[in-house]
Fold this protein.
Amino acid sequence: MVYCGKLSKACLPCRKRKLRCDLRTDGCTQCARAQLTCSGYRDTHALRLRDESTAVQKRVHAKKATKEVPRSVSLSACCQARDIFYHNYVVGSTKPFNFLQTFYSPTCKDEHLSRSVDAVALAYLNYQRPLPSAEDEARQHYVTAIARTSAALQSPDEAKQDSTILAILLLDLYEKITNKDPSFYGAWAAHLSGALTLVKLRGDQQFNEPSIVRMLMRLSTNLLISCVASGRPVLADLVALRNTLAAHFPAPADPKWRESDLMIEFASLRQDLEKGVISDVDAILALTELDAKFTKLGKEIPPAWQYKTVHVEVKSSHHYESFHHVHPAEHVAQMWNTLRLTRLSINEFICSRCLRLQRQQKSSQALHAIQQCATRAIKEMASDVCASLPQYIEDPPSSFVQAFTKTGPSHAESKAETHISPAGPPDPTHHLPCYRLIFPLFVAAQSSAVSPSMWKWVIKQLRFMADYHAIENAMSVAKILESGEKPDIWKVYAMLGSYAFVC
């Protein structure tokens, strides 16, 4: 019911004509003058309240209709790509490009930087969630970014700007996402080598700004990984840059930094081994000494970088043994798995050289002991890699298990594209910690000392990633293992997107 306010007692003709009614008992004066029949006067008490609920509801709905806001706003592929890229590379758990906040914003006036951001963001989006439009748009932004960066390099002042070096770093990241062949050294290191030259031109004053130091540390790390993956020697200018950074680095005892120093030694020794400039005996001694350094580093890791070993009474399908590791953060797990993979490679070299000496009948009891020690190290590192999986892989809900049981797991002869996803398309940001374990699992599974049970278990985990998380590369790596092929591990690393995803 609606209250209508104070009502007039006037007759109907007076109300229509909006005249003052004198309410005479025998008829009002106004009606008499107009020679009208007075209709009589209203009972205002009876009319004080009336039901106008329907009318009020119509008016309210009419007002809401004029102010209604769309339930969703359609974002362009470029906007989506920037958001996802920023989440994973700038503010996410690993933050490899956290310094980007200092130099870039969506209103950035440096076109070579903004185009580079858009190119790598769209390429990243397309890699995780293939979209033909994103791939084409990424390539267009890349071509424009290359042209704008080349123009900036022609100017002595612009070439030294922070935005130029950052644009080159991003263009390198684009190459890692789109180019899957580490042997193509031109694409894998050209951008970073150019950035290294610019760093030399900028002088020592650049090392006084913390955000610039972090950017240059990322440059040095990416260039070091490129050298290792492509089998190229570590540049002297890179070593010089790292030495300068070490003097300005706020935490020189950082495990990842110390680990990368040892990686330089590993890359140099690997070069000598491939060139054959040292004998097998000298190689074994050098490799054993380097492995001891990595072992010492593992024992000196600060408490904040340590993991906990959790023993379980009942193993899940994701446990190879009755324990798993829990790391305080994802970047800590990456550091440990990098150490394990490097030690795996070192001890594989040791075993191969010992076997070659045995075939030449030059073996000895001491070399046999070294080979046994290397074999134990390979098994231990492979086991630790497997123990890092349960923390980052999810158990499926019961609905998925039922669907998976009915359809059966995917086999080598089945279609790799047929995946069972419990919640529709996978979130391209949610499963990256799981994705980053594909390469360590592959290296562990193809090591010389791996047991058949571990080999089968790794393949099972990779197929689970493919079926449950819809990670197609997991299926590709599983098929490589099943085929019995022994490809260069760095080709698989490149296929997985290298340090754009893996490190």
